[in-house]
Amino acid sequence: MEKFTIHVFSDSFGESGEQVSKCALSQFGFGEYDIIRHSHINSLEKLNQELKIIDGAENILIVHTMINLDHVEVLSSFCKERNFRNIDLLNPLVSAIESFTKRSPRRESGIYKKLDEKYFRRIEAIEFAVKYDDGKDARGIYEADLILLGISRTSKTPLSIYLGNKKHIKVINIPLVPEMEIPKDIFKVPKKKIIGLTNSIEVLNKIREERLKTIGFKEGSAYSSMGRIIEEMDYAENIMKRIGCPVVDVSQKAIEETSEIIINIMKENGFKIIY
């Protein structure tokens, strides 16, 4: 067979139509063919412009993944008048799902791409939280959407991961320890990016005692003593006052609840949450 061309019409990038076409072509071993994408067809004007390009062409096959039924009808009529073979890769499946689930499709173009972008934003935020967890690299404060400060056992890490996973927020958390100097750059970033975390003395004492048991230490360590906890809390309170950042008490709160409080603070400070 002489060389032929597959024209892929799409309201997005046309990647799906091209890949399915290549998958089908692989079953025949054709070597002489071209695939041309006609992408981002989001108006009848754009569709008609692309149709003019193929008007009068020979040895072509039309494949499309357009969800707008008005556009599908125009393309179908165009192909019928010129005796072009036209394959709808998307709508038969959409109709089958609609019939099976008894739910109506949104008929919005580019949704899959939006979901794809959402997935990568989530992964990027999770990886960021892991990379900059517990002050591993203070340089992350400039890239972060949010900086969490707090002493040990104030839910810094769980909140960082949760906010990255559920809200796609890039979070770095910095531990506040009297013996460790806080990164000087923390005073250079906008304070609206910073939120302090605190907990009650009693809760911290209980959590730290349990933590010591799980790692095999005996009770009575300085780490869990009331005196040490009070010292750390006083130090952290002083740092947060110097910065002028809001402080959230995580005691008796689930991660989800604390997360919502943090998000509301970020929104009040002008941060746009996209997820």
TrEMBL record:
It is an enzyme of class 2 (transferase). It catalyses: N(tele)-phospho-L-histidyl/L-threonyl-[pyruvate, phosphate dikinase] + ADP = N(tele)-phospho-L-histidyl/O-phospho-L-threonyl-[pyruvate, phosphate dikinase] + AMP + H(+); N(tele)-phospho-L-histidyl/O-phospho-L-threonyl-[pyruvate, phosphate dikinase] + phosphate + H(+) = N(tele)-phospho-L-histidyl/L-threonyl-[pyruvate, phosphate dikinase] + diphosphate. GO terms for molecular function: ADP binding; ATP binding; phosphotransferase activity, phosphate group as acceptor; protein serine/threonine kinase activity. Keywords: Kinase, Nucleotide-binding, Serine/threonine-protein kinase, Transferase. It comes from the Bacteria. ADP binds at G150, I151, S152, R153, T154, S155, K156, T157. Its EC number is 2.7.11.32, 2.7.4.27. It holds the Pfam family Kinase-PPPase. InterPro entries: Kinase-pyrophosphorylase, PPDK_reg. HAMAP family: PDRP. Belongs to the pyruvate, phosphate/water dikinase regulatory protein family. PDRP subfamily. Bifunctional serine/threonine kinase and phosphorylase involved in the regulation of the pyruvate, phosphate dikinase (PPDK) by catalyzing its phosphorylation/dephosphorylation. This is Putative pyruvate, phosphate dikinase regulatory protein. It comes from Ilyobacter polytropus (strain ATCC 51220 / DSM 2926 / LMG 16218 / CuHBu1).
